Amino acid sequence: MGDSLFDDAPSPQRAAEARRHGALEGTPLAERIRPRTLDEVVGQEHMLAPGTPLREAIERDLLQSVIFWGPPGTGKTTLARIIAEMTRARFVQFSAVLSGIKEIRDVMAAAERERRATGRRTILFVDEIHRFNKAQQDAFLPRVEAGDIVLIGATTENPSFEVNAALLSRSKVFVLRPLTVEGIEGILRRALRDRERGLGSADLTVSDAAVAAIARFANGDARAALNLLEFSAAAAPVDPATGGRTIDVPQLEQAIQRRALLYDKSGEEHYNLISALHKSMRNSDPDAAVYWIARMLEAGEDPLYIARRLIRFASEDIGNADPQALTVAVAAKDAVHFIGMPEGNTALAQAAIYLATAPKSNAVYTAYASAAADAHTQAADPVPLHLRNAPTGLMKELGYGKGYRYAHEEPEAIADMPCLPESVAGKKYYEPTDRGFEKEIRRRLEEWKQLKTQSSKLKK
User: Fold this and answer.
1) Measured between alpha carbons, how far is 456 from 460 in angstroms, rounded to an integer?
2) Does some domain include residue 30?
3) Does pTM top 0.90 for this prediction?
4) Among 286, 303, 360, 453, which is most exposed with the fewest C-beta within 10 angstroms?
5) Strands (E), 307-441
6) What is the tens place of the pLDDT at every residue in 247-289?
7) CA neighbours within 13 Å on the CB side: how many for 143?
8) CATH no. for residue 119?
């Protein structure tokens, strides 16, 4: 085996020896029960089943640089430890939280010396690689390109955003999936059976309902599930009659208090959830809209951020199909600002439900986008003279305001007068739909168009 910084983590043989000497006392259950072989890894069969490329590369010790991307507790570090036990390469672990550029350069230099002296590769595992800045990540590149090191990065954040492009292009990204409730239940039951590394030697009874509740609470995170099981076991009262302990759902509820929801207000999940809210409202699904609002608020999202997104949605996706939508969204923002949280949560939910059930139109959005494109690409024509004010005599002499027709003096309060500059004359930016109030707007525009046509004919 290589010179692994995982040497402190017990191999299967060392674990058994340590158990006999009581050396694992105090080691967390999640650490003791960690899988030791690829076959013991749960929930990642899509990338670790026999015959898959990653498994073949690990078993044949031909692994190239990879990034393991997945939520907490899905097996990223476990996979690195298994590789450490299986590889003949020198294995070094880094923590992006604890290591700096000097340590990186020292390891790179040692890897180069090792390759030249013995021909042996160095596999470098970088936990939480997204916490390294660009300069630190760049320091890996020369040795990766030279083949001196094989990089294994682990991250909970989207590598597209958090790993620099040069390093990413030299690595294969493997996505670890959140564990299913059934998968976590299996891990918990294995921990309860295992007498050597788990809780099998404890006089402990855990109801099926409690196992299922822990699995649901864990939200796809095996480590969180095992930590809760261990805490609940330690807190369970001893039965005076039997000397054993029992974990049931009522006891579990006391231990749980409140789940820490998976949410990073500055990371990808932030954008995933707000995207889900937008698309649910756009698809007129009020149940999904209020669910995603609750997910964000209960995880600690800034309520005013959500309010701002609702206001944007009211104009972008509803617009004049229901002009009241913008008023409702702004009122929700004012309510949150006025009464604060948590009381403001219902104002946001009310607005989201209103927006989800309102008629939809993106005509305002597309009108502005088209006008903005012309503003950037067409000639910046001067404002037509007849649309200019003429507050001075000179301006009147220059023709400012000449030909302007005051709408209120016209039949039906509309004049046959162009209001666009020459470069975009006749352009149609706003095309109202036949949904909601825009149906009435469309009718008005058609009527006014006919009036302008008639007026133009009369002039001729």
Assistant:
1) 7
2) yes
3) no
4) 453
5) none
6) 888 878 777 765 545 555 556 677 888 999 999 999 999 999 9
7) 26
8) 3.40.50.300
